[in-house]
């Protein structure tokens, strides 16, 4: 009898371990991504936070955008341009200010979880709104001011020159039209996760569990 009980206990333990190992994880294929990006992608799936929607992750530290299908498979990634000023918060009332009145230190791309929405900007272009009230969206890279060299900034190897916008996320045109918008239009608009650059990850995404020691170490190493 005791031996039977031991076998039952072992089988139950194995079942628990198997369930834990089967937790959903994002499929990055062969693409490299920082530990924080992988952690948020896995959490969005495992917790159900993305709600069976496509989702996108903006890694501000590395100025890169990742687009995922609802099941968590990476559809593609690309460099992006971000707000000129470093910071994770939106200046109150910034969405109502004319661009000419926005100070350089106010040109931030806010961090957080946002429900994306397909719409149009004042130029009549289709965009993916990130925070409509703050006038922050994802759109095709702007080239109206050649002096800003936005195309060259996207193409450069580094990320220091990817800070130029008023807060919007400038996406390479081909990627915007062939990856981001098709995923957005295929079903519900994606959930947008903008990773912080000055605040701790869990302070921005409050429901996220603590990182494992291995992930925390990898994340620290990636920021050096």
From TrEMBL:
Active site: 139, 168
Pathway: Cell wall biogenesis; peptidoglycan biosynthesis
Keywords: Cell shape, Cell wall biogenesis/degradation, Peptidoglycan synthesis, Signal
Cell wall biogenesis/degradation in keyword set: yes
Signal peptide extent: 1-21
InterPro entries xref list: LD_TPept_cat_dom
Sequence segments annotated as region (Disordered): 93-116
Domain L,D-TPase catalytic as annotated: residue spans: 54-193
Protein's recorded name: L,D-transpeptidase
Lineage summary: Bacteria, Pseudomonadati, Pseudomonadota, Betaproteobacteria, Burkholderiales
């Amino acid at each position: 009898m005791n031996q039977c009980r031991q076998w039952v206990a072992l089988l139950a333990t194995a079942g628990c371990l198997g369930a834990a190992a089967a937790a959903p994880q994002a499929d990055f294929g062969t693409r490299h991504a920082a530990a924080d990006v992988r952690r948020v992608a896995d959490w969005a799936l495992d917790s159900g936070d993305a709600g069976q929607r496509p989702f996108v992750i903006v890694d501000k530290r590395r100025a890169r955008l990742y687009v995922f299908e609802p099941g968590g498979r990476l559809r593609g990634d690309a460099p992006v341009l971000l707000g000129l000023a470093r910071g994770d918060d939106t200046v109150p009332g910034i969405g109502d200010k004319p661009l000419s009145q926005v100070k350089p230190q106010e040109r931030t791309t806010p961090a957080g979880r946002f429900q994306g929405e397909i719409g149009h900007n004042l130029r009549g272009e289709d965009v993916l709104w990130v925070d409509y009230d703050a006038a922050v969206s994802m759109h095709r890279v702007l080239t109206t001011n050649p002096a800003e060299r936005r195309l060259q900034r996207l193409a450069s190897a580094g990320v220091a020159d990817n800070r130029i916008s008023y807060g919007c996320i400038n996406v390479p045109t081909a990627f915007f039209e062939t990856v981001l918008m098709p995923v957005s239009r295929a079903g519900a608009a994606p959930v947008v996760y903008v990773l912080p650059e000055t605040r701790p990850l869990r302070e921005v995404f409050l429901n996220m569990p603590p990182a494992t020691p291995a992930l925390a170490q990898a994340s620290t190493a990636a920021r050096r």
